[in-house]
Design brief:
single chain, Rossmann fold, 9-stranded mixed sheet
Length: about 550
């Protein structure tokens, strides 16, 4: 429903170094304001020239977060959705690559009538237009805008200038700026150093922007003297210097900000009404810190040394763990190390569940297949995601259906039994960016299955990111030998969910359930997977 009041903007900027948690800060502010009854959305502006992170190496950028509309976006959008429980769209993420491409396309079409195209006003106008587009038509009270990178970077300058212009346009009570910085602790002198923050704020003010709050990441609590010093040189009320110490869970961050009255500071500045309520989150954190059970889950995949590549899976474990009164201990398994059944016993013998991660490429594929085999033969709870489903089908085809050498054409183009094959719609595609089967698709869930018991409804929608699928030529053989196809996309006749009826809990989806798990509600498949893991744990004792 449209709102008649002026739109309020909150800009979250960063200084000193990258990786200070601007995304978590933005999401936490969003949580506080939404709990006060306000309608909130969040936008991420990324200064890099890639059009989107879809083709970027996980080592460069971490997880690619896919939205319902098929957009491949920054992992921070996952934090936004998990915290404020609002589905994002392509309008919630913009990169320099997108901005410059749009402007140059217009120039090529002649839209600028032969004018000289410049960073100011053309690029900055496009950035402003994208900030406004996230709330067009107007349905949110507050738009939070996070800018990636660090103040002072060449890449971010057009974004800062655009924010300066927009701030002037909307007026004092319709915008506020939080600057996230670092206050390092020098061991030799045993003191916190404010100079990096001072210089960072100075850079910001040179651009024409003055922060209203400074969120200082620090290893140790900020003394009153330190806060006053930052406030003096940063031209900020010392009470608006917010302490950002390390916490055990990112879901504690809104509580940390709440205790320092960040919600009140923002609402006073923006002339907003409402009362922040963090009672749910307080209960959540209490359950997280004091679980009744502790389960060991094997995370089997390719980028096991890079947790950010699977950020949404890790967060989904936290949500599902809390709902099951359990702490999920993640054990990373590089599937290249799983070469024999004996390796499986050594690696998985003490596990309460096995999760086979999504991914691409043949590296470690045989180890992934052996991981499925161990879970199936030893009644260990199993959840397969995307490639995890495909490997589970390969394993079943080889060892139950008797088709030795069955494989995916992604791993072996000449396999005699291509039980997993490239989707028909993908065969003619040459460009890699944004060309996979992406976004939300419907799935019909069969009653009387583990999947139905989890979802409790016949029709669901889940997000996808893949090129290969179960080859329908083998479906009858799979079903005849005992594999249950419990979810299908009827429109494309695509296998979406498989399970083993006679197994305690063995389920795999062609989609990415982790992308729809929220702090307010764990994803059904993760919830039931951890529930089965707790049962498996208790059965061993």
């Amino acid at each position: 429903m449209p709102t008649k009041n002026p739109v309020k903007y909150i800009f979250v900027l960063g200084g000193v170094i990258s990786g200070l948690g601007k995304g978590i800060a933005a999401a936490s502010i969003g949580y506080l304001l939404k709990s006060a009854g306000l309608r909130v959305t969040i936008l991420k502006l990324d200064p890099y020239l890639n059009v989107d992170p879809g083709t970027m190496n996980p080592y460069q950028h971490g997880e690619v977060f896919v939205l319902d509309d098929g957009s491949e976006t920054d992992l921070d959008l996952g934090h936004y959705e998990r915290f404020i429980d609002v589905d994002m769209s392509k309008d919630n993420n913009a990169t320099s690559g997108q901005v410059y491409s749009t402007v140059l396309d217009r120039e090529r079409r002649g839209d600028y009538l032969g004018a000289t195209v410049q960073v100011i006003p053309h690029i900055t106008n496009e950035i402003i237009a994208r900030i406004k587009a996230v709330n067009t038509p107007k349905k949110y009270d507050v738009v939070i805008c996070e800018v990636g990178g660090t103040v002072g970077d060449i890449e971010s300058q057009p974004f800062m200038e655009a924010i300066r212009q927009l701030s002037l346009e909307v007026g004092y009570h319709n915008h506020t700026i939080m600057h996230v910085t670092l206050v390092p602790y020098i061991q030799a002198s045993e003191e916190l150093k404010t100079k990096p923050t001072q210089h960072s704020v100075m850079k910001l003010r040179e651009i024409g922007l003055t922060p209203d709050m400074i969120l200082a990441r620090t290893e140790f609590p900020l003394t009153r003297d330190v806060k006053q010093k930052i406030g003096l040189f940063g031209n900020v009320n010392p009470d608006h210097v917010i302490e950002g110490t390390e916490v055990k869970s990112i879901y504690e961050v809104p509580l940390t900000l709440y205790k320092q009255k960040v919600g009140d500071i923002i609402m006073e500045r923006l002339e907003l009404q409402g009362k922040v309520d963090v009672s749910y989150l307080e209960t959540f954190i209490k359950k997280f810190k004091q679980p009744k059970h502790k389960v060991n889950i094997a995370m089997c995949g390719k980028y096991t040394e890079l947790p950010d590549a699977y950020k949404s899976v890790l967060e989904a474990f936290i949500h599902a763990g809390v709902e099951n009164d359990a702490r999920v201990n993640v054990n990373w398994v590089a599937t290249e190390d799983v070469k024999t059944d004996e390796d499986g016993e050594r690696i998985f013998g003490n596990m309460d569940g096995i999760l086979l991660l999504p991914g691409f490429g043949s590296r470690g594929s045989e180890g992934k297949i052996l991981s499925c085999k161990y879970a199936r033969e030893n009644n260990v709870p199993f959840l397969g995601i995307c490639l995890g489903l495909q490997c589970a089908v390969i394993e079943f085809t080889r060892h139950i259906c008797g088709l030795k050498g069955a494989n995916s054409t992604e791993f072996d183009k000449k396999t005699r039994y291509p039980v997993i094959d490239l989707m028909e719609s993908q065969r003619a595609i040459k460009r890699k960016g944004g060309t996979m089967r992406l976004g939300a698709y419907d799935c019909d869930v069969k009653t009387g299955t583990k999947a139905y018991a989890a979802y409790r409804k016949k029709k669901i929608s889940e997000r996808h990111r893949h090129r290969w699928e179960v080859n329908n030529r083998y479906r009858d053989r799979l079903v005849k030998n005992g594999l249950k196809i419990s979810g299908v996309n009827s429109e494309l006749n695509l296998v979406e969910i498989i399970e083993l009826p006679n197994h305690p809990w063995y389920v795999a989806g062609q989609f990415h359930p982790e992308l729809k798990s929220r702090v307010s509600k764990a994803h059904p498949l993760f919830r039931e997977f951890i529930k089965a893991a707790v049962k498996h744990l208790n059965g061993k004792s």
